[in-house]
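Lecture 7 notes: from sequence to structure.
We start with the chain below.
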Amino acid sequence: MGSLSSLYLAFGSFVGPHIAFAGGVAAAGYAGRKGKLASGTDILSSLNGLGEPDVLLVGGIFGVLGFLIHYCIGLLPVIGSAGPATTDLPGITVFILAVVTRLAFGKTGLTGKYTGSGKREWFATGKGFIYNVVLGGGIGIVVGFIAAFLYENEFTAAFSIFPIVCFGFAAITLIFTQTGFATPATHHIFLPSGLAAVAGITAWGPAGALLGVLFGILGSLLGDLVGKSLNSHCDTHIDPPATTIFILTIVINAVSSVINA
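Predicted structure tokens for the same chain:
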């Protein structure tokens, strides 16, 4: 039942991010372009409140595109079901549709248009950099410890789905972000950390949990880089977590292939 829920609900055609979220991002971008929303980057407001049928239609069209892109990418021998899955299919689909949305409805280009007087920040430095390392490392330590515990106590079923559980926990905390609290998005930290921890522990035993810590830090830093380079000074949303997840999943699967060879 759990696997069916994951396949058909959380990551399927019902609320899969490549359909529900990507469609919402496109609808917001369209609404912003038409002046029906203050900003096309607003992915928190309920678009139903606009009462605009064309906004709903754009969201639905991009949802269908999300389904088709996800399906077609999954058929590619080097990426999807016809061979070893090398990346996160929902994540890469969200990224592709976000780029399409930016090009179709945005006016700022992929990297945005900076109009400030000082030098644009592309990557956090100083205290911001340390903060990202501490955030990613802290999450990585927790994720790695729990993964090692599951492995050592032979909770095989829980260990095998552990990365998805990590993603789900992080996604739930976005409720607090939606309600106005300064809660960070962390699913781009939790999921890569969980994937890396499972890969490392499978190959090296409990000591492999350190790989989860490393990728927790990388997830935090890469998410910051993507956010500042693709999702700042712009008029539509390109999701930093989804972009980070699909990139790091490629890296993790490559590392896993090497250490298990």
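Points to note: Residues 2-105 form one domain. Confidence is low (pLDDT under 50) at residues 80-84.
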